[in-house]
Write a structure and sequence with these properties.
The chain is mostly helical. It is built from nine helices and no strands. It has helices at about 5-10, 15-25, 30-45, 55-80, 100-115, 120-130, 135-140, 145-160, 165. Helix 2 runs parallel beside helix 4, helix 3 (about 30-45) packs across helix 4 (about 55-80) and helix 7 crosses helix 8 (about 145-160). The longest helix has 26 residues, at about 55-80. Belongs to the sigma-70 factor family. ECF subfamily. This is Sigma-70 family RNA polymerase sigma factor.
């Protein structure tokens, strides 16, 4: 089979390929693109086709693989490229290029709040924060597990009260006054 005969046979399949492409894409324009990609690959690799085999099946396989590869590429790109929704001012707090000096001030405030805790709350809270389990803290401090849970809960409430400006979002915002 000559290349021209092969191209003619491939182009005759374009209408059935379009229907098959719509099955994947659910969009007419995307289906047309997929058909075009499929036809281009089929014509480019015509020497891979074995005469006497199912041309339509071969083209469908090319289309399916093309769609899958394009989908995987799209997923990978969307995971790497930042979407515009992620760049909203509210989300910039979580940016990788945050101000290191601001972090130092926050850490100083947290350490100050921790130092204001009495020893009975400070010790179980810091142990829990470091990864100790409730029962390990209870054994280490020789107090009941319920007391450990209560002290950690009270320490959280005290810290939350002292650091309420951070939870309310008042720190780090520019306030304009007339």
């Amino acid at each position: 089979m000559t290349r021209i005969e092969f191209n003619t046979l491939v182009l005759r399949q374009s209408s059935s390929l379009k229907l098959y492409a719509l099955h994947f894409t659910k969009d007419s324009d995307d289906a047309n693109d997929l058909v075009q990609d499929t036809l281009l690959k089929a014509i480019t690799y015509y020497n891979k086709f074995k005469e006497g085999t199912n041309l339509k099946g071969w083209l469908y396989t090319i289309m399916k693989n093309t769609f899958i590869n394009n989908y995987r590429r799209l997923v990978k790109v969307n995971n790497v490229v930042i979407q515009s929704d992620d760049i909203l001012p509210a989300n910039l707090l979580y940016s990788a290029t945050s101000n290191g000096a601001e972090g130092k001030f926050v850490l100083e405030d947290v350490n100050k709040a921790l130092s204001n805790l009495s020893e009975e709350y400070y010790t179980p809270f810091t142990m829990y924060f470091e990864g100790y389990k409730y029962h390990e803290i209870a054994e280490e401090l020789s107090i009941p597990i319920g007391t450990v849970k209560t002290r950690i809960h009270v320490a959280r409430k005290l810290l939350k009260g002292q650091l309420k400006d951070y939870s309310a979002g008042r720190i780090g915002k520019v306030v304009y006054e007339d």
